[in-house]
Amino acid sequence: MTPATLGSTAIHPRPHHDQALIDGLQEAVWLVDARTLCVMAVNQAATQLLGLEPARLIGASMESLACTAEDALFWMEAAAGSREGLHTDTMLRRADGQMIWAARRISHMALADGDGVWLVSMRDLSRQRQHDEERETLLAELKATLESTADGILVSDLAGRMRSFNQRFASLWGLPEDLLLERNDEAVQAWMRRSVVDGVAYATRLAAIQEAPLLQTSDIIKLLDGRVLERVSLPQWSRGRPIGRVYSFRDLSEKLAASQRIDELSHTDMLTGLPNRRALAERIDYAQAMARRDASGFALLNVDLDRFKQINDTLGHSYGDRVLKEVAQRLRECLREVDTVARLGGDEFSLLVHQADARGAEHAARRVQEAMARPFSFDTLSFTVTCSVGIALFPSDGGGADELMASAERAMHWVKESGRGAFRFHQPRKHVDLLSRMRLDHAMRQALLEGQFRLHYQPQVDLGSGRVIGAEALLRWRDPLRGDIPPSEFVPVAEESGFIVAIGDWVLRQAVQQAADWLRQGRRIQVAVNVSALQFQQSQFVETVAQALKAAGLPPSLLELELTESILLRDAEEALLRLQALAELGVCMSIDDFGTGYSSLGYLKRFPIQRLKIDRSFIQGLPSDESDAGIVNAVIQMGRALRLLVIAEGVETEAQRDFLACAGCHEYQGYLFAPALETRAFEDKVWQPQLPPPRPALSPMRLVRGRAA
Question: Is pLDDT at 47 greater than 70 in this prediction?
Fold first, then answer.
């Protein structure tokens, strides 16, 4: 008999029968006397639930055992005669003070003598409560997770009915709140279909997904308001079988807009708004495809502003930026809408002219020159900016964007070297030639590291006494595989690549060290070293010379630097400052290959030069060629008038030597006396016993110029 069946039955209990009855029950039970409200009997489960011995429970009043106000009120009403039962969840206090939850049922049982007992049964709910709390916590955490994610989440069953969703889902789709409260699946799906650009395609795709419970998908959905959503669909599993589907929705609009903006920035010059080099390369690729299809061609113009650095240095970069913006606008006006103007960087622009042959490219270049000829006026300033233009044609000057841009740039540099302010077409070189130059450049760099370079010295002879008074250091290269490589082959490549600076510094140090070694042997002789234009323009060139002299311990007067006319005239004022600094060191300087450039007498008077060197091209025709004879005589007389020493190079015959001596030339060098020799051969040739005695003291003019014997 269970407590539920005892509520309305009249019995005559006996104590031992009562105890036997409740001991057989699994729930905690005790009997309470209805008249005294004292505990009459308890079972073992009751003592375990409360942690009390039976002796402490038997005879205890229910008022003293009440833990809640509800219990106290119930037993007060029971004492007043109420027989109404009670069935609730309540809190119990164990003997150790711990409060536990229990399901409590109190029923009245009438006895034959008119009295009765209360049957109190308790079932421990602690574990169930704990599980409920854990489940509620888990559900709360799950809900919080769903609400905190940036994605909209929708969970449906296998039939496509909505089971749950988060607020982000409702927000992404703009679902009305009343529609969500109705839980009307068809109305929600209809709303979503009406929100997309192609509702039919959306419904078809959704039906296909629902028909395949194991399908995993990722789709892009375009909404009518312009937003773009990504929908990812995954099957939901339970116990190894699919029970539904989870959809996640993510707004890609901002990401796509940012990606588009990044792409625009990566293809656009920030200052002028023109396409940049990357965008130009892509448009050239497109132009190539169109040209091949139409069997036509196009032109690429490289436009570089002349002396733009002077604008930045003089007016400042803010004015320089204004000039670049104005140039960009003028270049736009030179072309058709289908053509492209791009800024490659700095003051360099490029024009892509579609369907243009050589004549069309020339017309475009002339329009550019005319546009740039107009004065630039900013505030109160007015000035002119010219440009150099290089032209490359497709397909003759390159089959790809990089090759075409390189061809146009090379043509532009040729214009720069020829005087600027003009345009020029690219002159194609064979690919084999370019490749060989690359290989030669690499081999040359390795040669310097591996010590394959060496110096030969050509004697310089005084025409009056026949005595060797100097030596020109000349570079030689013997490659282990190629053999001797002439300077005429590798020096132009070194100048083009800029490696001539490193080679020139090596030659300078080696020659200075050799002159110092000879001096320590008692052989005082001046050594001449050729200086390239690029080497001379280095800001630390004077310091490099000073350090080489100091490291070797050589008096500066025993070093001569041979400079070309182009070095001195490229930037005359800067060259003058550098020459004056070298003169203060005590270094001698000469103009090499004199007569082949455009030297001005005014500059020659200002520059601290000690010597003029007549180029070998004027010596070859002596003495029979009247033109060469006239030029040589003029140079010698001019040198004497300026109180400069004059030396002729390339003297190969006695007739040439005699002519120079009669004309008043001071010195010569060439095969007539000796070619460029290795160090040991030079020493044997110059200081052998049969040489004539030292020449007389220098003339007053030479002493004034500081020429040492």
Answer: yes
Q: Residue 367 falls within a domain, yes or no?
A: yes
**pLDDT tops 80 at residue 689:** no
| Percent over 70 (pLDDT), the chain | 88
Q: Are residues 577 and 534 in the same domain?
A: yes
Residues 52, 195 within the same domain? no
Phi-psi region of 316 (alpha: psi -120 to 50; beta: other; left: phi over 0): left
pLDDT at residue 4, as a whole number:
36
Whole-number Å distance between alpha carbons of 191 and 224: 12
d(CA 465, CA 696): 8
The count of structural domains within the chain is 4
Task: Take residue 65 and report the two structure tokens written for it.
Answer: 């055992």
pLDDT digits (tens, 9 = 90+) for 558-578: 999 999 876 766 667 788 888
With vertex at residue 261, the alpha carbon angle to CA 257 and CA 264, rounded to the nearest 5 degrees, is: 140
CA distance 86 to 107: 7
Q: Is the bond preceding residue 623 a cis peptide, omega within 30 degrees?
A: yes
* Same-domain check for residues 72 and 158: no
686/665 same-domain check: yes
Q: Is residue 440 part of a domain?
A: no
pLDDT at 372 over 50: yes
Among 500, 529, 532, 535, smallest CA distance to 514 is for 529
Say how far apart CA 402 and CA 164 lie, in whole Å: 57
594 pLDDT higher than 90: no
- Same-domain check for residues 219 and 288: no
CA–CA distances in Å: residue 512 to residues 1, 470, 471: 124, 13, 12
Nearest to 660 by CA among 624, 633, 621, 620: 633
**Residue 134 is assigned to a structural domain of this protein:** no
Query: Residue 471's domain is classified under what CATH number?
Result: 3.20.20.450
Q: Is the pTM of this model over 0.90?
A: no
What is the torsion angle, in degrees rounded to the nearest 10, for the CA atoms of residue 228, residue 231, residue 232 and residue 235?
180
Buried b (16+ CB within 10 A) or exposed e, 553-582: ebebebbbbbbbbebbeeeeeebeebbebb
Q: In this predicted structure, what is the pLDDT of residue 580?
A: 92
pLDDT average, residue stretch 574-593:
90
361 and 297 in one domain?
yes
- Evaluate whether 527 touches 559 at the Cβ level (below 8 Å): yes
Domain range enclosing 73: 3-126
Residues 225 and 274 in one domain: no
For residue 556, is pLDDT > 90?
A: yes
The structure tokens listed for 326 are 């104005």
CB 335 within 8 A of CB 301: no
Q: Same domain for 475 and 522?
A: yes
- The Cα 361–Cα 352 span in angstroms is 10
pLDDT digits 0-9 by tens, 160-202? 888 888 888 888 888 887 787 777 888 888 899 999 999 899 9
**pLDDT for the residue numbered 708:** 33
